[in-house]
Amino acid sequence: MHDILPAEISTWHRLERVVGEVLAQYGFREIRVPLLERTEVFKRAIGQATDVVEKEMYSFDDRNGDSLSLRPEGTAGVVRAALQNGLLYGAPERLWYRGPMFRHERPQKGRTRQFHQVGAEVFGAEGPDVDAELLAMGERIWARLGLDNVRLELNSLGNAAERAAYREALVAYMDRHRDALDEDSRQRLERNPLRILDSKLPEVQALLTEAPALMDFLGDESRAHFDGLREHLARLGIEYTVNPRLVRGLDYYCHAVFEWVTDDLGAQGTVCAGGRYDGLVELQGGKPWPATGFAMGLERLVALMELAGPPADESLHGYLVLAGDAAKNEGMALAERLRSAVPGLNLVCNAGQGSFKAQFRRADRSGAALALVLGEDEVRDRNVSVKFLREDGEQITLGWDETPAWLAAWLARRND
Ligand code: ATP
Ligand code: MG
Fold first, then answer.
1. Are the C-beta atoms of 303 and 110 separated by less than 8 Å?
2. Which residue's CA lies nearest to atom 10 of ligand 1?
3. Which of 173, 275, 335, 342 is most buried, by the most CB atoms less than 10 A from its CB?
């Protein structure tokens, strides 16, 4: 479980802000559900024969002897809350959530035991139009974040009967190659055969190239759903590849499933995953509402954003260096006037002691583009010296009155 340190917090804020804004553009409403639910809620929703429920949940008995679990994902709790509060009668209902999730996994790069997700769910719409809308929304989020190395993979899981027929064919095929399977895959074969498609082992992947393909088991209706989705995506200009091995481990997933993947993060390259889960609401005790959604992993998105570098408009712009007592007295008031007069200006005013040299070192470390210097001469003449810390440029001196306009123009040029 990781601390999120001040050095990365502005990236988190930007991510959360952009995601919130884009979800609002599509009419999604935020819902906040507890971190703890009865273990039963997750067992029923996620399924017994899954890694999450079998091995990864943080479960414990509370003082009444009720088994509770820290949420390993968001959908189960959102469905529980939506049913309990009658939210689905206004369907289609578009909901989103965010926050920490907990899974007892083997920690590695891109995989932690507490991680954060934002998820979006649409209840009461059969698609494929809303599925396409979800994909457009995801694409818009990546574009707004300046992430261009994220690609969309898509597959169709058909309906329950088609998956059952496929499962039989897959099991028959894999049974013939049992010797080539590792222990984990053999167990999956017994308990949840479609999960084998998820295997990352090269020898299993090699077997899978010859295995029956789920796509070949789809009937007319399922095909029409998938073709409909593809037509919407073509009209919207959304690029994707069909990955016939893309599955979700859970039984209630059907029709469209998808992932956004990047090559920039090593082995854990999936930044967002989702699909249609028409069977879940009924499983949780509601009417058979159709549903579709996705969840994105914020740590992985933050890592991608950091690789892309900070956007010009959110880094620190100025560091006010103060030399001498008179400057210390005037400096804070000057900084306040500048923050009021220049919208969007990010300015740090030196606090505490420190020689001229020490303050310049702090200015440099702060990442600020400009050092604004206020010394005894400047206070006497009511002006400020501006030094460029990152770009070329001669030091200049500005009167206090003209400083706001100069800074505003400088900012506008920079954000162009
Ligand atoms: P994987 O096959 O990699 O374990 P998953 O199917 O368990 O993925 P989902 O439950 O679909 O993942 O979660 C959606 C997203 O949440 C993932 O694509 C990923 O970005 C993120 N995520 C899931 N588990 C973790 C984790 N332990 N640490 C960091 N991010 C995670
Ligand atoms: Mg997992």
1. yes
2. 73
3. 275
Nearest CA to ligand 1 atom 22: 297
Give the whole-angstrom CA distance, residue 286 versus residue 261: 33
Residue 241, token pair as written in the block: 């590849």
Distance 50 CA to ligand 2 centre (A): 9
52 CA to centre of ligand 2 in angstroms: 7
Pocket of ligand 1 (CB under 6 A): 73, 103, 105, 110-112, 115, 117, 270-273, 295, 297, 299-300
pLDDT of residue 195: 82
Amino acid found at 348: V
Alpha-carbon torsion (80, 139, 129, 215), positive or negative = negative
Instruction: Please tell me the predicted confidence (pLDDT) of residue 249.
Output: 65
CB atoms inside a 10 Å sphere around CB 319: 26
Task: Give distance in angstroms: CA of 113 to centre of ligand 2.
Answer: 10
Over the stretch 297-312, which tens digit does the pLDDT of each residue have? 999 999 999 998 776 5
Domains in the chain, please, with CATH? 6-158+218-306 (3.30.930.10), 318-415 (3.40.50.800)
Block residue for tokens 């949780």: 284
Does the pTM surpass 0.70? The reply is: yes
Ligand sitting nearest the alpha carbon of 46: 1
Per the CB < 8 A criterion, the answer to whether 322 and 372 are in contact is: no
